[in-house]
Each structure stands twice: as C-alpha cells, then as structure tokens.
C-alpha cells in the first residue's frame, strides 16, 4: 500500500509533548508517514514557554520546496504558525491539491500568547482555505469575536468545518454554526500538555488514511484519551503520549501472551480452568474485553490445553474484574485467574503487591467479581498485581493476576510459576 504522507507545519517543542514532534509521534503511531516543517523554535516545558524564535521565511520556503519536490502530500496539518508560514502555505495551496487541518494554537496551556491581532487576521485568510479547524472552546470564541468585531466575514467565500474541542467536541461549519455532530469524551483528571496537537494530528492522520471526517474524529478521540491515560509524568506536569489501543492490538497481545504461556510449564490451573482477558482502553462493558471463548484446562500429562478462540465478549467473569479495576487505574487492562495456594500467597508477597476479599463479607445481590475487585482495590489503594480470595460455599479459592496488558500478566504468571516450582 502506498505510504500515506502527512505534512505537519508547526512549532518545535523540545519536550516533544506538543508541536511538530507530538504531531509526528501521533502520525507514526497511526501508520502515516510524518513529514515535518518547523516554523519556529519554542523553548518550553510543562512549567512555561520561554521563547518563540521564528524561522526565517527563506528557510521555511526551502523546507516546503524540498518536501513538495519529492513527496505527494494529501493532508497538511498546521500548529503554531507565523505570517511567513501562512503566506507560503496559501501560495502552495494554489499549486497543490491538499486538505488543510488547522489547529489554531493561539496560546499555550501555560498561557504564552502565540498569536497577536495581526497574526490572528492572517489566520483568518488561512481559515477560509481549511478543510477543518480545531480550536478549543476559548480559541473558538476568540476567533468568532475577532471576525465579528473586524467585520471579516466578507473574507469567507468557503465554509470550513470547525471542531470545537473540549471534554465533548462539537462539529459545526464556521459560517452557519449548526451542530453536525457532538462527540462525547471521558475526562481524566490530569492536565496534559499537547492534547490539542495530538487530537488534531490524529484526526489529520485518519483523514490521510481515507477515513470519513466523523469517523476520523471518533477514532482520534480514542487516541487523545490514550495519550492522556499513558501521559508521561514530568516535574511540572504530564507530556502527551500518543498510544493506539484498538481491537487488533488487544488480539495481538492476547495471542502473544498465549504463545508465551506455552513456553512455561504452567501448572497453576484451577479446577474451573483459567482464562486470560485484555480490554480496550476504559472498557464500557464485557463486549470491550477479549478473552478465550473456552478455557485453559489441565491435561492428563501435567500440561494444559488452550480451548477456544480469542473473541471480544467471550468472558464475563474476568471481564468484571477488569471493568472494576479500570476505575482505580485505567492503565490496568488485563487479568488471568490461576490456582490458589496458601503457602504460595505468603511467598509471593515478597515480589508482588497483593490484596484480597472475603466472600463471607459479600453483600447480597452484588456481582462477586465486581464487589470483590472494588473491595480489594479500596483496601490496597489502587490495583495490586494480585487479588485473591479463599473461596466460599461451592466456590474454589482463586488467585487473579492483573497487569497493563495480557503480555504483562503472563510474564507475572511465569514468575509466580517459577516461585511455586522452587517451593
Ligand atoms: N484530561 C483529559 N481527559 C480526557 N480527554 C482530554 C483531556 N485533556 C484533553 N482531552 C481531549 O483532548 C482534546 C483536546 O483537548 P482540549 O483541551 O480541547 O484542547 P487544547 O489542548 O488545545 O486546549 C479534546 O478532545 C479533549 O477532550
Ligand atoms: C510548539 C508548540 N505547539 C503547540 C503548543 C500548544 O500545546 P499546549 O496547549 O499543550 O501548550 C505548544 N505549547 N508548543
């Protein structure tokens, strides 16, 4: 398949949390080839933006000439711009057929103003040539007020799409502003640097891959949510970390986890059999969780069979554990149940974080797994590596191993098996 090229034109953030580096990381994660042109060097971190040094017009032009001489470009995504960059983009727009996705970065999260009134008026010329503009709520209001106050609607002979971003994002068209679609989001309690860049470059990347606009926005929403969940902590904040967890990735992880399981002499199989499950990010129901349709069961030779296929919706039991755990740590997306052994639990506490619940304390009319997982996580103050219970009437005691994905879980199970074998 011919590689899709996206041309990213924006500012350089040395931390890579925003700007052309964040955009390129996003495009790369989405399988699109990121071509990048830097318009300004912006020394900054999660504490502040310290400067903005514009690249000379001649050098911006040389970067554009070099790119268009050698590459076909279907989408241009813009971030922090200056007047020279806008003039050059408008000039190239006349000669080349590319769509523009413009993220109008008026100021940074740390309140550094990137755009004054002169440059904002120049942005209005660019907006008319855009396919999609992605201001956050505050930027949108600033732009509309500026156009109204300076009577600039006469500059628009086109009616670009605008995605007004926030926890929920609203897709409208600039001139008639009727809401075409509202895309709902899940707010994570974190202030992450560069989410606007990641979101707009993810939309641009999905468009570059041929997705329709609304599908591109919905898929990009999952990317930016993941970039927040997996954001890297720094002294003064969090850097966005574009991450793509889709059904294909979950199935691949589970397949490789089962491949690894076969490499160990896994014998800690409960009477009811084991299952292993991994979910999409922030699963809403067991349908967002993949597992074996059958079980991992003991065979007569001390080994085990893996019965069934990997399917989404295949497990309710293990799924309920993951669905409960996500509320304590959204990065925990996988779990596997193995056989309980009292002596083993004592030894495991040297290497693993452990919590438990007692079925005798279970309130009436609750899902045991949901209640038990919540109880154990509350007691632990997060999600431990292991949650066990000693069983109850007709219920086998059980150890449940949790991790960030199925591969992480099987690596923990392998270590538990090694410890058990040495007992
Ligand atoms: N803490 C967060 N939790 C979930 N989504 C977030 C979070 N921060 C930003 N986003 C999403 O990232 C996108 C861009 O964020 P927004 O704050 O609107 O833009 P900007 O970062 O440019 O101010 C929006 O779709 C928003 O929902
Ligand atoms: C080079 C560059 N581009 C974009 C932003 C906006 O990112 P944020 O809104 O997180 O400050 C930035 N700070 N730096």
UniProtKB/TrEMBL annotation:
Q: Which GO terms describe its cellular component?
A: cytosol
Sample GO molecular function, one term: thiamine-phosphate diphosphorylase activity
- Which InterPro entries did the record assign? Aldolase_II/adducin_N_sf (IPR036409), HMP/HMP-P_kinase_dom (IPR004399), PM/HMP-P_kinase-1 (IPR013749), Ribokinase-like (IPR029056), ThiN (IPR019293)
Q: Which reaction does it catalyse?
A: 4-methyl-5-(2-phosphooxyethyl)-thiazole + 4-amino-2-methyl-5-(diphosphooxymethyl)pyrimidine + H(+) = thiamine phosphate + diphosphate; 4-amino-2-methyl-5-(phosphooxymethyl)pyrimidine + ATP = 4-amino-2-methyl-5-(diphosphooxymethyl)pyrimidine + ADP; 2-[(2R,5Z)-2-carboxy-4-methylthiazol-5(2H)-ylidene]ethyl phosphate + 4-amino-2-methyl-5-(diphosphooxymethyl)pyrimidine + 2 H(+) = thiamine phosphate + CO2 + diphosphate; 4-amino-5-hydroxymethyl-2-methylpyrimidine + ATP = 4-amino-2-methyl-5-(phosphooxymethyl)pyrimidine + ADP + H(+)
For this UniProt record, the keywords arranged alphabetically read as follows: ATP-binding, Kinase, Multifunctional enzyme, Nucleotide-binding, Thiamine biosynthesis, Transferase
Domain spans labelled Pyridoxamine kinase/Phosphomethylpyrimidine kinase: 13-238
* Known EC number: 2.5.1.3, 2.7.1.49, 2.7.4.7
EC main group = transferase
Q: In which pathway does it act?
A: Cofactor biosynthesis; thiamine diphosphate biosynthesis; thiamine phosphate from 4-amino-2-methyl-5-diphosphomethylpyrimidine and 4-methyl-5-(2-phosphoethyl)-thiazole: step 1/1; Cofactor biosynthesis; thiamine diphosphate biosynthesis; 4-amino-2-methyl-5-diphosphomethylpyrimidine from 5-amino-1-(5-phospho-D-ribosyl)imidazole
State the Gene Ontology BP annotations: thiamine biosynthetic process
Q: Where are the transmembrane segments?
A: none
Q: Where is the Thiamine-phosphate synthase ThiN domain?
A: 254-414
Give the family, as the similarity comment puts it.
In the N-terminal section; belongs to the ThiD family.
- Annotated function: Catalyzes the phosphorylation of hydroxymethylpyrimidine phosphate (HMP-P) to HMP-PP, and of HMP to HMP-P.
Q: What is this protein called?
A: Bifunctional thiamine biosynthesis protein ThiDN
What species is this protein from?
A: Methanotorris igneus (strain DSM 5666 / JCM 11834 / Kol 5)
């Amino acid at each position: 398949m011919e590689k899709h090229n996206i041309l990213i034109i924006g500012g350089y953030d040395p931390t890579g949390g925003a700007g052309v580096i964040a955009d390129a990381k996003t495009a790369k994660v989405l399988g699109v080839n990121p071509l990048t042109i830097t318009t300004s060097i912006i020394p900054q971190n999660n504490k502040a933006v310290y400067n903005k040094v514009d690249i000379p017009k001649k050098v911006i032009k040389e970067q554009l000439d070099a790119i268009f001489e050698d590459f076909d470009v279907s989408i241009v995504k813009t971030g922090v711009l200056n007047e020279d960059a806008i003039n050059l983009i408008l000039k190239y727009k006349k000669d080349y057929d590319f769509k523009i996705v413009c993220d109008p970065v008026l100021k940074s999260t740390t309140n550094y103003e990137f755009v004054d009134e002169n440059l904002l008026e120049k942005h209005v010329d660019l907006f008319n040539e855009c396919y999609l503009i992605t201001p956050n709520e505050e930027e949108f209001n600033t732009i509309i007020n500026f156009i109204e106050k300076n009577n600039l609607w006469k500059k628009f002979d086109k009616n670009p799409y605008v995605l007004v971003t926030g926890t929920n994002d609203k897709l409208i068209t600039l001139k008639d502003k009727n809401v075409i679609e509202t895309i709902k989001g899940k707010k994570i309690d974190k202030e992450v640097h560069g989410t606007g860049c990641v979101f707009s470059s993810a939309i641009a990347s999905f468009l570059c891959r041929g997705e329709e606009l609304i599908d591109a926005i919905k898929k990009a929403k999952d990317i930016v949510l993941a970039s927040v969940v997996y954001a890297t902590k720094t002294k003064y904040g969090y850097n966005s970390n574009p991450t793509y967890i889709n059904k294909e990735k979950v199935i691949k992880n589970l397949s490789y986890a089962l491949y690894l399981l076969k490499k160990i002499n896994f014998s800690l199989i409960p009477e009811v059999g084991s299952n292993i499950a991994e979910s999409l990010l922030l699963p809403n129901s067991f349908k967002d969780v993949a597992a074996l349709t059958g079980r991992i069961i003991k065979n007569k030779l001390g080994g085990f069979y893996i019965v069934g296929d990997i399917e989404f919706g295949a497990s309710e039991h293990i799924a309920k554990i993951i669905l409960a755990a996500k509320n304590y740590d959204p990065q925990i997306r996988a779990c596997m149940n193995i056989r309980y052994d009292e002596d083993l639990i004592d030894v495991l506490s040297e290497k693993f974080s452990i919590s438990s619940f007692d079925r005798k304390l279970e309130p009436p009319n609750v899902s045991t797994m949901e209640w038990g997982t919540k109880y154990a996580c509350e007691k632990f103050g997060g999600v431990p590596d292991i949650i066990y219970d000693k069983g109850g009437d007709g219920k086998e005691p059980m150890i449940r191993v949790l991790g960030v994905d199925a591969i992480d879980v099987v690596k923990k199970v392998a270590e538990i098996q090694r410890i058990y074998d040495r007992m």
